[in-house]
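Readers outside the structure-tokenisation community will struggle with the description of the input data as it stands. I therefore recommend that a typical entry be quoted early in the introduction. An entry of this sort, consisting of the sequence and the corresponding backbone structure tokens, reads as follows:
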Amino acid sequence: MKRMARHSLKPLIDMILIIKDELVNPPTWFTSFRDLTLLCTLRLHVDIVIESEHTDLYYQYLKRRGGMDFVNDFVQPGSEGGLRLDTEFLFNPSIVTDRIVPENTHQLYNRIQFASVA
């Protein structure tokens, strides 16, 4: 059975959000990272993966801080297709930012939301 969006009859599309590992580190606020992954998982039903060559290092970092609750997996750079949250435009589609902080969390969520509808 397909999931349906609350305010329309359009089925929700399962999407993958690929977050670059650099966006987990400061100057990103960890609570903002967690808020963004929570919103995207619960409201948009996206699978969230972290793109990193240093999987073990980032797994331990996220696990100790409770950041793995809404992260589904880790992938090698360039190995997965989907919407990317990145520090530079390397793949299409990408949303480029230098950090995830309280001031831009809502804007990033909206950009991810509208990119998932397109």
Summary: The chain is about 35% helix and 20% strand. Residues 7-11 have pLDDT under 50 and may be disordered.
